[in-house]
User: Which sequence fits this backbone?
């Protein structure tokens, strides 16, 4: 079995494959947990350490705090070493071909390309099963339908909050990452507005309870402004316009003046989710759904290409806890399909 991507999902799958006695190899185009390497340097994750642990290896953080990026990177390196996982780093999956029928000697021919060291060198692999855990992190959704959504002051990722001290910042998005970024920016001295499409009653449904708690405290103390049930109508060089919307319905045209919120603005962070690498999935022969993520069978995580499975954030798992659970389930399914299994 080949696993594409050594993020938390791919590493969790590798541990499960090792436990099940499956022959496996993880192909990773950069280093292990590359997405976490690229998270903001000062981040403290919103998940407790035990929810980020994989492969049965305990993850403790001093004082019981939530892990920092450094804690998490050290932990995943330790898991890969302690478990002796088979990971080929700096080796990108470039091409995949399905050969023959499933169950009749059918297999995948996978071509990987070395990056940086040994740049361009290729290697061919053969596997009965392919588990794609390639993540979505490098492909953020953009606010391109909003006038001004392509201005240079609109970012899809927060690295460090310091450059935004003393500036008017709008954060757009209804997930844990958007809420965390808004609080990080506010704590660093930016004047922050957080805009979510979900209405006031529902905005908490996609957020972890402790994030809702902290957000409400900060909004109550006027350390940030929280607008729910709004969409971004336009972004101008020195301002933004939000419009109140009925969630799930087509946005109304501009109505009464109190439907419109105009704010001074220097920077916008559009943290509205991620999509799959469309070119990569076209090569795999797996169609993408309307949300930009691959189509697969909900119950089994198998795609329309027999033997090709999807896990991790590509399978709409927003947190590592969920990615880990699904990766382990898929590997158990693959192990049950080995010849000789009942
Ligand atoms: C700012 C931020 C904060 C977050 N905080 C939390 C948190 O507190 N708790 C939580 O549970 N989750 C959190 N998340 C979400 C979490 O990071 C993701 O759920 C998780 O990383 C998804 O794991 P994954 O293995 O599916 O994908 P990724 O972690 O994205 O890993 C995919 C891997 O695949 C590799 N890859 C891609 N294409 C190829 C290819 N063609 N060939 C070979 N390798 C390839 C990539 O280099 C990468 O290493 C946060 C996310 C962000 C952005």
Assistant:
């Amino acid at each position: 079995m080949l696993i594409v991507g050594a993020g938390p999902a791919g590493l969790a799958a590798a541990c499960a494959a090792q436990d099940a006695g499956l022959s496996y190899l993880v192909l990773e185009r950069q280093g292990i947990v590359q997405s976490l390497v690229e998270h903001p340097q000062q981040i403290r994750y919103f998940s407790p350490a035990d929810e980020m642990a994989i492969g049965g290896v305990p993850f403790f953080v001093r004082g019981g705090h939530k892990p920092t990026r450094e804690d998490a990177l050290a932990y995943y390196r330790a898991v890969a070493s302690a478990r002796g996982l088979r990971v080929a780093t700096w080796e990108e999956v470039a091409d995949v071909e399905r050969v023959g029928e499933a169950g009749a000697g059918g297999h995948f021919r996978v071509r990987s390309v070395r990056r940086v060291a040994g740049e361009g060198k290729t290697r061919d692999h053969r596997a009965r099963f392919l588990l794609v855990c390639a993540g979505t992190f490098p492909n953020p959704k953009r606010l391109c339908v909003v006038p001004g959504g392509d201005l240079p002051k609109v970012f899809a990722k927060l690295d460090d909050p310091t450059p935004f001290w003393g500036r008017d910042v709008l954060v757009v998005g209804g997930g844990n990452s958007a809420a965390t970024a808004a609080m990080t920016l506010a704590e660093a001295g930016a004047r922050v507005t957080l805009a979510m499409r979900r209405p006031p009653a529902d905005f908490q449904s996609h957020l972890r309870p402790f994030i809702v708690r902290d957000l409400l405290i900060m909004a109550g103390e006027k350390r940030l402004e929280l607008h729910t049930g709004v969409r971004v109508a336009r972004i101008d060089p020195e301002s933004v316009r939000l419009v109140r919307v009925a969630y799930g319905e087509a946005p109304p045209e501009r109505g009464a003046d109190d439907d419109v919120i105009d704010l001074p603005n220097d920077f916008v962070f559009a943290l509205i989710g991620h999509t799959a690498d469309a070119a990569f999935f076209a090569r795999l022969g797996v169609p993408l759904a309307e949300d930009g993520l691959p189509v697969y069978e909900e119950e089994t995580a198998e795609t329309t290409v027999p033997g090709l499975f999807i896990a991790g954030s590509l399978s709409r798992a927003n947190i590592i806890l969920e990615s880990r659970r699904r990766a382990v389930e898929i590997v158990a399914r693959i192990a049950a399909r080995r010849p000789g299994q009942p």
User: Anything to note?
Assistant: The longest helix spans residues 320-336. The chain has two domains: 2-138+274-336, 154-270.
